[in-house]
Write the structure tokens for this entry.
Amino acid sequence: MSGCSASVGDYLGTKPTFDLFRYFDGQVQAWGMVQDRSGKQIRRFEVMITGTVQGHQLTLNENFVFNDGEKQQRIWRITRHKDGSYTGTADDVVGTAKGQVAGNALNWRYVLRVPVSDSTYDIQFDDWMYLQDEQHMFNVAEMSKWGWKVGQVTLFFKKLDSDKANVQ
């Protein structure tokens, strides 16, 4: 099965080169959707992200608003390592997220604890970010449980310049 999936190394040399800290330093706005395993759209959302870089640490404050009015916040704490890899934590992430960049792509893998009705499920995310240009990025994340695909999240990001970020 490993030969059937993309490797971050497939993107070596692609441009523009993705620098996670540079892209997320400041204000970023994103729009996304969640699809079930059949591809049916089940939720839509917008998210405003404020990123702060201090040395080898990036803090992302993400504020989600879903189409049904639900609001969520996630605060990521991401560390850049000397070998170019990343690790990250957030309150609803089980353990540590691990990421690797090559060219214009970042592959980020983690387990997210997702509330559903009166329960929670630990869902594996295989998250791929693709930098289009200095302002735009695509994100596709496959969600799985026990090795079976249960859904997908797709996002489109736009880095805001400082003038637009202050107009909120």
Notes: Residues 3 and 53 are 36 Å apart (CA to CA). The chain has two helices and ten strands. The first strand starts at residue 26 and ends at 36.
